Amino acid sequence: MAATPAPPEAPPKPTWDPRRPEPPFPWLRPTIRIRLTLLYGGMFLIAGILLLSIIYLLAANALNVGSDLPFKVVTGTVSSESCNITSTQLPAADLNHALNECVNEQRQHALDNLLSRSLLALLGLAIIAFAFGYAMAGRVLSPLGRITRTARAVAGSDLSRRIELDGPDDELKELADTFDDMLERLQRAFTAQQRFVGNASHELRTPLAINRTLLEVHLSDPGAPVELQQLGKTLLATNERSEQLVEGLLLLARSDNQIVERKPVDLAEVAEQAVDQVHAEAEAKGVEIRGARQSAVVQGNGVLLERIALNLVQNAVRYNVQEDGWVEVTTEVQHGQAVLVVSNTGPVVPAYEIDNLFEPFKRLRGADRTGSDKGVGLGLSIVRSVARAHGGHIYAQPREGGGLVMRVTLPI
């Protein structure tokens, strides 16, 4: 047996979702660092306000604002420029009242001055506290940034990267060590998967290549009957399509559900080919295939996209009504996406059973749609996997009166 070919490595995947728009102000994103900074600064600001309030109340209590003077002027003259008291002779009662108002005004002025200066000092300290909190939060969260960078590298299929975080044995180091252990297990599993794909590729290609060689030898015989020649050509075409499908599926598995080589593929042509392949089966069941197919070019793998259309059309024909059934296959471009819609008449499918249709080997309870003589229950699972590999989606919806509407959207 020939040596097992080494499976190609998957290309790096983007670490962002291209369908998700960038925020207009990335620096306003509520990151953990920003939230910790606001927490630290807010706690300092609240503590400063409480401290300032206590100092203000204690100072006001010590100055006895609003109380009378602890002495009385009996005789004599008093003058004050700040309180606008002249040295003219005044009655003792008026003089004491003027002195009380003067002293209380000075006390209030001192408290106001203390409050304004304290607020300015508090504002300056709050700015320093927020800056210090931002710096400290960055230092505390730096291991998380290292973990994030490693995770992004792993998302690009670089499973050999490790965090290897140094420092104290705290919660962050425990998280980093756990992440490293998980990456080790993922790398082993991914390596085993690549080895399996390589072996499967060799084992599947070999019998198909042998069949192709035998058919080509028989077809090269000029003395073979016409019927055998026609049968041989049909089998050779079927074998070729099987080889292409195996190559496409193995390519999908090797690339970790991402299409590596993309070429322009018209969904209208893909749908036409699927309809042509199912046409004989539809005529035998009395099912009419109709629908307008407009050009809708996408970038992808033609063999896998043809498998999407073929599986959907085959299901629509096989799980149909006994008489006057129809299948409608349409393609078009809507809102910048290529759309393939396959709808059909058929048995009533409950809405709550729709999700089960896309699960491998799942069958509807009591529905003829998943009878054992009509498939193995993998068709729609393959359709969903291929659609996701192309960055698209598939939606299923029950038709009123029976049947389903399958809608596949693919980015152009």
From TrEMBL:
Domain HAMP: 138-191
Compartments, as annotated in UniProt: Cell membrane
Main location: membrane
Listed Pro residues bias regions: 1-15
Catalytic activity field: ATP + protein L-histidine = ADP + protein N-phospho-L-histidine
GO molecular function, one term: kinase activity
Keywords: Kinase, Membrane, Phosphoprotein, Transferase, Transmembrane, Transmembrane helix, Two-component regulatory system
Ranges for region Disordered: 1-22
EC class (word): transferase
Keyword Zinc: no
EC number: 2.7.13.3
Domain of life: Bacteria
Ranges where the Histidine kinase domain occurs: 199-412
PANTHER family: SENSOR HISTIDINE KINASE TRCS (PTHR45436:SF5), SENSOR HISTIDINE KINASE YKOH (PTHR45436)
Name used for this protein in its record: histidine kinase
Organism in which the protein naturally occurs: Streptomyces justiciae
